[in-house]
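User: I'm curious what two different proteins look like when written out as structure tokens. Can you demonstrate?

Assistant: Sure. I'll show them one after the other, since each token string lines up with its own sequence. Here's the first protein:
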Amino acid sequence: MLMNKLQLSRILMIATIILIAGFQGYWLTRLYKDEKQGLKKEVDVLFRESMYKLQMQRFKGDTIFNKLMPDNLFFIDAVNVLKQRAAQAGDKPRMTISLSTSASFSRDSAGKKHDSTRIFIGSTGERGTVMPDGAPPTEFSRVIFKSSLGDSLSLQNIDSSYNKELAKAKIKVPYQITSVKITRQQRTRLDSVDKNSLHTNYVTIGLNQPMAYRAEFGNAFNYIVGKITYPILISFLLIALTTASFIFLYRNLLAQQRLTNIKNDFISNITHELKTPIATVNVAIEALKNFNAIDNPERTKEYLDISSSELQRLSLLVDKVLKLSLFENKDLELKKESFDFKQLIEEVMQTMQLQFHKAKAVVHFRTEGSNFIIKADRLHLTSVIYNLLDNALKYSPVSPKIEVVLKDREKFLQLLVTDNGIGIPEEYQEKVFDKFFRVPHGDKHNIKGYGLGLSYVAHIIKKHHGYIDVDSEENKGSTFVINLPFKESAAMDFDKQRNS
């Protein structure tokens, strides 16, 4: 059931990440297209403004225009003034000038307003209208057709003027100015342009020989991406954080599943193992009662040894259950008292004599120094010593040789437990103190365990402000080193000394 939930969780997480990534991709694509469309409108407006400025400069340079027109007039106003003065002549011109305008307005992403005016000029009729106000005897049409307005503009001037406008708008995209001579056939083809390419609309200059100009831009991808850099970064950050969160959550679910399976297996096995020593002790006691074994000293000793061994085994099993409870309850309270650590080690070794004898182990204990009085939790340190000696026996399957050394280091006590067992590979030496971790050895041996012993030892030593290390070589044995401060007042100094 749990596995099915994990598979469903994995599918939902992957689907969520894909949907978020798809939505972000769609959103960024739309944002890119909108920016490109906005850029196209902006460069078109700037191009028209640039072209009309150039026309006005050329128009003001005309001699007749300067003579007839007041200063500081816009292009449309100038043409209107010409028409008004022609009407004041009282002569109905046979040539008419038709003038129409269309305005457009836009606002860019920075909020800047843009407006432009398109001018359409047409003429019909014959020439011959005389200009008023002492103007030279020239036709009104000459102002329009023979002035600078009728001339084409050089590409260099257009490029220079347009480049300044783009620089003001901070648009850095490669472009080129193109021109087309207008014919009747081309007027229709100018409107049928590729809408996907980035370019401006054509701007027509001149009346007698009109020319159409436009700016064609190169690849604007880098420029547009530069404008939407922050949205892109935010999108990638959102996807990355979502993915990392789901991976972290899924790994926690897997770890929780593994711990649950181990705990269930542990409880199942420990329940079965608890029954075995109890049943063995009951059988031994029944034998002592019913078969007059008490009258046989040798038989009595044998049954008592069996009972003692099984009770010790039962104590070990209970100890394992207590360790599991300890890890569930992290707020462990230590009951510290002063006692002789050397004497505690000797007592533990004495209770394990039967196990040493059964495994044919050779155990040596020696001390260095004179002061071994320590203030600590006696019960938990008893379990620490027992775990280290028990591991030395279990992982030294052939002729175990165990050496226990207790050293007085002035500010702290140092305990070393050395065996000649199978050792620990270097890549696993930092993990042996993790909860439920067991070194994989394949089919080399079959040693029962649940990965709680060394984790429990490390936890207890840490609660005493000490630390534990291991020095091991595969197939040659291991040495576990425990350092404990003498008393609580020296714990902080001990921590500083260790960190330095």
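Here's a second, unrelated protein for contrast:
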Amino acid sequence: MRSNTSAKWRIGAVSYLNTKPLVEGLESDPRIDLVYDVPARLPGLLDTGVVDVALVPVIDLAQRYSDWQVVSDACIGAEGKSLTVRVFSHAAPESISVLHVDGHSHTSVALAAILWKELYARDLQVLPLPDDARAGDCEAVLLIGDKVVTSRPEGFGVETDLGSAWQSLTSLPFVFAVWAAPRGMDTAELSSLLSAARDLGVRSAGTIAEQLGPKMGWPITLAREYLTQRIKFTLGPTHSQGMAKFLELAKVHDLVPGLFESVFA
């Protein structure tokens, strides 16, 4: 936790293209130290005090409802197709029984389990994707992040975008990650900084796509579509509804503790 009011804010952010609009301008802000990592490792950085605030997977937020609080209305969400959260499979979704999952993800793993149960009445056997495994040898693989676009696996005949599947199930947007900090921390300044960065990033999303997309392996046209149309960066009313519905279903399927309402406090 931040030790004194004169120290820099240490912010744990995701290292994917979809987070660049959320941190626009923060790298040059003298009040900020940015720490980049994959989504699954950011909760640990927050728990151990390496960062003061982190862009955490929603499922982790619910599991730590008594320890963390949401500190901004900025988020990583999608209304329909996400482009970067997909299950690649050799068979139709309703025939899948074993899903190997990307170790970088927490929320998307829970989302896949919920979707297959709700849409196809199937209990997936979820296994980690071994480092030495060839994705094409697996029955189905869940991948997230830039690599879904920049180094997509070969040999699969079916792709299921989890953002689209969620909208088909619920008619709601999906929220993958939010900014969280320890409960009790005075985050008024931080909340203002994060919201202002998001607002600047949304206004600059097309430019960010053009400048950073190719450097990160994205075609410019697709990067622009991704940041300006597919990914949503504000936790508005319908996104909060989608987040609440996800947590409700996660509770039904024993993926989170029963008391999660306080994540919205």
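A detail about the second structure: The chain has two domains: 9-77+174-256, 85-170.
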